[in-house]
Amino acid sequence: xxxxxxxxxxxxxxIALVKKGAEIMRESVSREEVLNALAKDAEKIQALLDKQRxxxxxxxxxxxxxxxxxxxxxxxxxxxxxxxxxxxxxxEGQEIIKNLEHILSxxxxxxxxxx
Length: 115
Known about the structure:
The chain has helices at residues 2-28, 31-54, 62-84, 90-113.
């Protein structure tokens, strides 16, 4: 019972630290900086997948799909962090991810046409 109480206290301490970190981030990072950083990362992902496609690693290639899935997952975590810190709204975050998914879909389609 004592051990469970201590673990719960540590969990509350960790939550408090995360909240404090989010407050500090909101104070030191502007909304525009976050949106610019997310846009740059989305462009990097697009360029990486375009480069793979141009090197004839077509969309049916498991490595191509793995890179796309991994990059999109990491990007979604960046967006989620920005949302959690209150720097962008949930709707904005969904739109940013949706736009990148649309771009990646276009890459898949054009890769299929290049065959």
